[in-house]
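Pilot study result, target chain (217 residues):
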Amino acid sequence: MPRESMKSKRERALAVCNRIGQHYPDAQPALDFGGDPFRLTIAVLLSAQTTDAAVNKVTPELWRRYPRIEDLAAADVHDVQDILRSIGFFRVKATNCISCAQMVLAEFGGEVPRTYEDLQRLPGVGRKTANIVMNAGFGIVEGIAVDTHVFRIAHKLKLSSAKDASKTEQDLLKVIPRELWGPVNHQWILFGREVCSAKAPKCGECFLADLCPSCGK
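Predicted structure:
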């Protein structure tokens, strides 16, 4: 097959985004955080290598025990571990939760920062988490959060061939219009869960079949 031109790839990416948007117009973050940017930060931190559903099962008790940032900052790590025990890497995540709360208090006056640079200084926070917090927490869209679903979909659609999430994001930013970056964060995740799953993609039922070079492969 001839190599796809950038113009053609952009047109296809736009069609993909529009079609996914039509199917998931009201997509929202699956993590429960009550509109609180700090709780969102912690929830996304906890979601690494863990399902959002599993995180939503442990955060109610976490916030019941530690309702304020100050409470979590002063928590005993073993107590937090006990709350998080059902999710993956709970020991490391418990330490990061406490350290994150301490840094938000000590260096940011108790307010979650709103820039990539500052957010990624927080323990356990990388670019993906920063993108989600900025987008869902503050309505600031500077990029696309590439989680396992977005990464998989981008590669199946041949919109990226990059080996890591950061470079995959950069490839997506080149072909997806800026005004659609925000919706991608939520809509593509739903599409990945419901249609384009990792183990059993529903290619025969997929509404992107005519736009996807990997359909049926």
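One observation from the pilot: The radius of gyration is 18 Å. A full batch analysis is planned for the follow-on phase.
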